[in-house]
Amino acid sequence: MKAIVLEAADKPLIFKEVEKPALNPGEALVKIKAAALNRRDYWITIGKYAGIKYPSILGSDGAGIVAEAGSAAEQEWIGKEVIINPSHDWGNHPEYQSKEFKILGLPENGTFAEYVKVRAEYLYPKPHHLSWEQAAALPLAGLTAYRALFTKGRATKCDKVLIVGVGSGTGTIALQLALAAGCQVFVTSGAGEKIERAKQLGAAAGVNYKSQDWAEQLQHLAGGFDVIIDSALGDRFAKLLDICNPGARIVFFGGTSGNIPELNGRKIFWKQLQILGTTMGTADEFKAMVSFVNEHQIIPVIDEVFPLADAEKAVSKMENSTQFGKIVLSA
Q: What is the pTM of this model?
């Protein structure tokens, strides 16, 4: 089969012939119709991710048709259109992942290939209202955003929600999920066109975080937030405390702008704030996320679709963070 292979951090991705995976009992072979990029794929390609091994087939997100089964128990999946839950071996505790937890695409070979093998427990029927590309864009970002918003953030239709850095795949689906839940949603971005795109999707308003008074602008627009979803951290994180309503939850799942800066603890305890970290999610949350997407007919936003062979071009686009929504590979 053909696959996109990373052979070293200082080498481009290669589209080459590799051995088709052999199945064990409990596993299924999925013929990939579309796969989507995530920020972790970019970090892996430049050698800045834990546990990197070479050679590797990257890709956490995928949608396709089940082609083979590892044993009789998985035969029912053959021919089914599926999406793949990339959150593997979460463990028994819903509050945190186990030591065995891993994300599809490293250390195990991922979806940037004609075929990928996964345990059948991680297969879910593809939402009928989504194309292959839209379905592939859903799993990792959708699961991360769902847990951040509803499990950790406990967002309800009465809440005002702020999405920091809208435009990323996760930030964009978080906007869509929050709107579907009836929340009033505001956004920030460093690009005015991304703010306008978010408003077209239903955001109440947005502010450019490059403005010196971005937090004051948000306070004026919204009057305060009940849930803030952030994936950047960095120096601007300290100002989030000022625009939180009493009892607000700040949930973060990344640190692309740096670490958490020095914070005024008095604001945290006096306003009864919660600062919560999150990563991916449980199998129950993935199931709930897919059900929520089906119920509200949510369609993930796709920025651009590349042929599988052009994965290197797709990763280069992600490096510049110019996209709004997901970057997808079509097999």
A: 0.95
